[in-house]
From TrEMBL:
Domain Alpha-D-phosphohexomutase alpha/beta/alpha: 8-137, 163-263, 270-374
Cofactor: Mg(2+)
InterPro entries, sorted: A-D-PHexomutase_a/b/a-I (IPR005844), A-D-PHexomutase_a/b/a-I/II/III (IPR016055), A-D-PHexomutase_a/b/a-II (IPR005845), A-D-PHexomutase_a/b/a-III (IPR005846), A-D-PHexomutase_C (IPR005843), A-D-PHexomutase_C_sf (IPR036900), A-D-PHexomutase_CS (IPR016066), Alpha-D-phosphohexomutase_SF (IPR005841)
Any Gene Ontology CC annotation: cytosol
Record organism: Filimonas lacunae
Protein name: Phosphomannomutase
Pfam family, one: PGM_PMM_IV
Matches recorded under NCBIfam families: Arch_GlmM
Length: 460
């Protein structure tokens, strides 16, 4: 059982003891801390937007969050079943002080989380998160008297506004997509993608859509992280249906990956590469991805004569770097697309619209498009952490072992081996060390990852 406090929010498993899991008491405590922090920032703006994915625990967490915010005197605008990017945009639509997304993103169904947004509809910074945790630790809250309790309203139009913004984005060509007459299979993983993705495709003029796992019950038909081993059903169905492509999203619809017409995977790392390639054709500027993402984005940026910049892992860090370098496109290799002049957040819906536009303009199949990019192979692994493991000590030992190699310590350890690399870091969302390695050869990437995993175990 776990409770994790990080730049990705307050995240934990459901059931168990307070302080060790995301218990009702913890939900109330951290919601109260967030509401108190917001009131300190903007005492005259008492509006907060909330929305949730389709998790089993979602409605329970939703009621606790609404009641806690109302008890602080904060007005709640509830999107109910929604997506992370929709809530982010709704904060701006509503001119709210902040927002809370109730989702544990790619984590299994026994997890949930509070993802916390500022008034820009962006994740709060590490510094603001530290302040919030101090408030939570002190239990220093002041609740409103009965005549000043917050109000509650439901917003049923936020997704429509989000989709409208996507289809009106200058680089999205609805007419070309409609003309392409695409047949698409969608894996909605029993969450709100079952609402958002078909609605977007309809607005884009796509009429032939098959939706898998469309019942929103939170009982995920497979592990919800859109990795190759979890997408066999989608791959098989694309092939069976003779569809042009398959689309997979995670439960809160901020991550995106594609399946080619032959049932093969486009590769989640290449979602950002393909979208960036299209954007950079029409808009010159910098691109950003986190340092656990494929080198292929750097290659594409070079082809377009533009600069590429790496960031630490985590959406907050990517957005910060994008703002620093005035990037026109960015994101993460896990299938997260950030289009800054739409909003500074990972958004599968704008990713789908831009990818389909590129596909329609190129006249290529999805497989042909994928083959136009350089081939790198990434080995993604993890080691679970037991209580008491000193990760800093582990990383110090590994750094010493590879001291003759180029090493970046901005976010864990990234070690270069000629044209290959490995990145070791603790997760923001799970009690694990992630080990990502990339090479032009699949066996080399796997071997580098295995070697470093053995180094980690020996250093524990």
């Amino acid at each position: 059982m776990s409770l994790i406090k990080s730049i990705s929010g307050i995240r934990g498993t459901i059931g168990g003891r307070p302080g060790e899991t995301l218990s009702p008491l913890d939900v109330v405590k951290f919601t109260a801390a967030y509401g108190t922090w917001l009131l300190q920032q903007q005492p005259d703006n008492k509006k907060v937007v909330i929305g949730r994915d389709g998790r089993i625990s979602g409605a329970l967490i939703q009621r606790l969050v609404i009641s806690t915010l109302n008890a602080l005197g904060i007005d709640v605008v509830d999107l109910d079943l929604s997506t992370t990017p929709t809530v982010e945009m709704a904060v701006k639509f509503e001119k709210a002080a902040g927002g809370i997304i109730l989702t544990a993103s790619h984590n299994p169904q026994d997890w949930n989380a509070l993802k916390l947004l500022n008034s820009e509809g962006e994740f709060i910074s590490a510094a603001d998160g530290a302040t919030l945790l101090e408030i939570a630790a002190s239990d220093n809250y002041t609740f409103a008297p009965v005549d000043k309790l917050g109000s509650y309203t439901v917003n049923t139009t936020a997704l429509d506004k989000h989709i409208e913004a996507v289809i009106n984005y200058p680089l999205v060509d609805v007419a070309a997509i409609k003309k392409g007459k695409f047949k698409i299979v969608v894996d909605a993983i029993n969450s709100t993608g079952a609402i958002a993705v078909p609605a977007l495709l309809k607005a884009l003029g796509v009429k032939d859509v098959v939706v898998l796992n469309e019942e929103i019950n939170g009982k995920f038909a497979h592990n919800p992280e859109p990795l190759p081993q979890h997408l066999t059903q989608l791959c098989n169905e694309v092939d069976k249906q003779q569809a042009h492509l398959g689309i997979a999203v995670d439960p809160d619809v901020d991550r995106l990956c594609f399946v080619c017409e032959d049932g093969s995977l486009f590769g989640e790392e290449y979602t950002l590469v393909a979208v960036a390639d299209y954007v950079l054709q029409h808009k010159k500027g910098a691109s950003v991805s986190n340092m656990s993402s494929t080198r292929a984005l750097q290659d594409v940026a070079k082809i377009h004569g533009t600069e590429y910049f790496p960031s630490a892992v985590g959406e907050v860090n990517v957005v910060t770097k994008m703002k620093q370098v005035h990037a026109v496109i960015g994101g993460e290799g896990n299938g997260g697309i950030i289009v800054p002049d739409l909003h500074y957040g990972r958004d599968a819906l704008i990713g789908i619209a831009l990818f389909l536009t590129q596909l329609a303009h190129s006249k290529k199949s999805v497989r042909q498009l994928r083959n136009s990019y350089p081939d790198y192979f990434m080995s993604k692994n993890k080691i679970e952490l037991e209580n008491g493991v000193d990760v800093n000590n582990v990383f110090t030992k590994i750094q010493d072992k590879y001291k003759n190699n180029p090493i970046n310590k901005e976010d864990g350890l990234k070690i270069e081996f000629d044209n290959d690399w490995v990145h070791l870091r603790t997760s923001n969302t799970e009690p694990i060390i992630r080990i990502y390695a990339e090479s032009s050869f699949e066996t080399t990437a796997d071997n580098i990852a295995r070697r470093l995993m053995q180094d980690i175990r020996e250093s524990m």
